[in-house]
Amino acid sequence: MLAALNQLYPVRLTVFALCVFGLLLSALAIAAYGTVWAWMAFVVFGLLTWLGVYDVRQVRHSVLRNYPVIGHLRFLLEYIRPELRQYFIEGDNEAAPFSRAQRSLVYQRAKGEPDNRPFGTQLDVGADGYEWINHSMQPTHLASHDFRILIGADRAQPYEASVFNISAMSFGALSANAILALNAGARRGRFAHDTGEGSISVHHRANGGDLIWEIGSGYFGCRNDDGSFSEERFIVNAQDPQVKMIELKLSQGAKPGHGGVLPGPKVTVEIAAARGVPVGVDCVSPSSHSAFSTPVEMMRFIDRLRELSGGKPTGFKFCLGHPWEWFAIVKAMLETGITPDFIVVDGAEGGTGAAPVEFSDHVGAPLQEGLVLVHNTLKGVGLRDRIRIGCAGKVITAFDIVRMMALGADWCNAGRGFMMALGCIQAQACHTGHCPTGVTTQDPKRQQALVVPDKAERVFHFHQSTLKALKELVQAAGLNHPQEITAHHIVRRIDDTEVRLLSNLVMQVETGSLLGPLDGKQKVFSLYWPLADAHSFRALKVEQLPA
Predict the structure, then answer these.
(1) How many Å apart are CA 125 and CA 102, to the nearest integer?
(2) Phi and psi (nearest 5°) for 195?
(3) CA 468 to chain centre
(4) Could you give the C-alpha distances from 428 to 273, 354, 436, 445, in angstroms and in order?
């Protein structure tokens, strides 16, 4: 009943409606009494009504389109003092995904505004954990900020990817207009847009931007009616020229090891068409895959996907959990000779959608730990040169990209950064359907607040400005490409009296060293590598766990 009433009269329009009502009452008062007060009220309510009409017709600010008149309070606080806006309008609290400075930086870059700041660093350079990149006395000069890497060089259809791309966010979690704007921005900037496990919708296809098709345990877009994997349906999507890479999702940083259910009432005609499921029926993402049950079977499945796609780069995404399961996958690569073209490491701190608090806070390895182990394991077995590594998990600034590359990544993905470029104000109402900016809602009226051409421009500008900042960092370090950055370039303050290179603080494994004796290797290898089995994810026995 409440939902039906809200459709007839959206509560978010209450202030605007009161202004219109006040205008009518003041007009009647003028006709009846003609007093000065009646005329004053008529002028005030007339101006507010005109402002409301203007708000719903302008295309720059999503908040004003959804909340005419009253939405100006946000910008009033912003004008008075930026910190007020960030504390009271953007939900700056203990759960805030990014710092105030980071959010301000995204908004500035997305809007094409200057991002330089006076009065030095806003960080405490003396605080424990402060990090910086060492600069060179002979900086380089680079002609372009369009840094790219080649993925699947030996495949029939390799992909030259940007080093900064849009992370996996499904249609259904994001609105149609958000998907349209992201993909339009990706096309203009020639960077990749990961579909998320919700598969490829008509909105992904509309603007023709490069897609990374993510396939989860529900096999959306390539499933039989019983939920099993369908080769025939996979081929239809995978061989679309717009799809540049295939990504098998094992787990995600927000809730690794946890499946999901999209309730039937939320499965609209468009969502059902994209996912290949019935309209109005619960859409289930199991917690594990049914197409394979062992690491060796997984490698063969990846090889089959690559073959069916026509030789497009194919890999997998996961959030690191039990190290022996990851080692089992690597052993399967060695045993079968099959390697993925890329691996995306998702950090537990990542994730744009709603997740159980315990999972988002306490399940899965953070990005640094996962990335370092994946990079060093592949290096230790001599496979690092054959496999590209992407990463995601609160990557938003150029320095974040530099740091992840220093730890072993070839490229970075961002979710929340691009959401904020769309206009997200972190109201943290993503799962309610009441997103104030139209980014995460399926309500068609709320979605209209997000004007696609304007927000596509912001997505493009955020990407370009971040890469320009990355170029400046690379130049300052005296390098020619972000891939030249290593852990030797990054310095961290340990305490008041000690700073150390990041290379002295994180694991460093010699190429091929895991193929010989493990004596003297880091404990994670000496303890768990011998217990991993290419033919089982669960080879480790409880009684074999170290004390």
Answers:
(1) 17
(2) -70, -20
(3) 20
(4) 28, 9, 10, 19
Tell me if 486 sits within 8 A of 498, measured CB to CB: no
Tell me which of 1.20.120.530, 3.40.50.300, 3.90.180.10, 3.20.20.70 is the CATH number of domain 148-257+290-488: 3.20.20.70
C-beta of residue 197 within 8 angstroms of C-beta of residue 205: no
Long-range contacts of 96-101 (CB under 8 A, 24+ apart): 96/426, 97/394, 97/416, 97/426, 98/394, 98/396, 98/416, 98/420, 98/426
Q: CA angle 152-157-163, nearest 5°?
A: 50
DSSP category for residue 413? E
Q: Which residues contact 67 (CB under 8 A, 6 or more apart)?
A: 12, 15, 55, 436
Whose tokens are 């969502």? That residue is: 271
> Tokens 């007093």 label which residue?
35
pLDDT at 264 over 60: yes
SS3 276: coil
The pTM for the full model equals 0.86
43: left (phi over 0), alpha (psi -120 to 50) or beta: alpha
Sheet-wide strand order for 490-495: 131-133, 490-495, 498-501
Asked whether 443 and 455 are in contact (CB, 8 A), the reply is no
Asked if 481 and 147 count as a contact pair (C-beta separation under 8 A), the reply is: yes
Residue 171's beta-bridge partner residues? 174
Sign of CA dihedral 270, 275, 279, 283: negative
Place of tokens 């690092």: 384
Whole-angstrom Cα distance, residue 343 to residue 519?
28
Cα gap 61→236, rounded to integer Å: 38
Give the whole-angstrom CA distance, residue 346 versus residue 344: 6
Backbone phi, psi, residue 179, to 5°: -65, -45
Q: Which residue has the tokens 């051409």?
A: 453
The DSSP symbol for 168 reads P
pLDDT digits (tens, 9 = 90+) for 4-21: 435 445 777 888 888 888
- Return the domain boundaries, the chain: 12-109, 148-257+290-488, 513-544
Mode of pairing for the β-strands spanning 211-215 and 388-392: unpaired
360: nearest Cα among 254, 270, 491, 275: 254
User: Is-contact 181 424, C-beta < 8 A?
Assistant: no
In 3D space, the residue among 178, 166, 169, 195 whose CA is nearest the CA of residue 414 turns out to be 166
203 phi/psi in degrees, rounded to 5: -75, -30
DSSP β-ladder status, 411-414 and 243-249? unpaired
pLDDT, tens digit, for every residue of 379-433? 999 999 999 999 999 999 999 999 999 999 999 999 989 999 998 877 777 777 7
Write the DSSP assignment of 155-189 as a string of letters.
SSS-EEEESEEEPP--BTTB-HHHHHHHHHHHHHH
195 in Cβ contact with 243 (< 8 Å): no
CA separation for the pair 129, 132 (Å, rounded): 10
